[in-house]
Design a protein that fits this description.
By secondary structure, this protein is of the alpha+beta class. The protein is built from four helices and four strands. A hairpin with a 3-residue loop joins β1 and β2.
Amino acid sequence: MELYMTGALKVQRLERQVEHKKQEKAELEARREIYQHDVELDQIIAVFKLGCALLVQVLLLLYFGGKAIEFNTFARRILALPGTRIVTDSAETIRFRADRRDPEMMELLEQACERINATYHQRNGRTVRFEVSWPSARSRHAT
């Protein structure tokens, strides 16, 4: 009887191993599947990236005085700044929180906000304004 149990346990263990190997084989075969390249999606993404890069270039030319700033630098140091949107009945204010560790770029951002505000923008009947909010330690820049 004991010999029968040992044999039955071995068979069960081998069956589990066979099942495990079948699963491994199925996973490996799934990895062999070749996906068809989506050319249309690639073209749409490429156009989107190009359009975004051109918009940033126009933004830099019009509002940042044509300062030579790379796209990555602009994205990391300006676009990634935290901000607040304040909406009232008559105005909408976009307030960037200045980074004290980057005073040169923040000065450029303040100048850009002044240039944008000088062109008077409206959205949904509200005047749109942009401003830079400095921490209280820099009271000369506080808004």
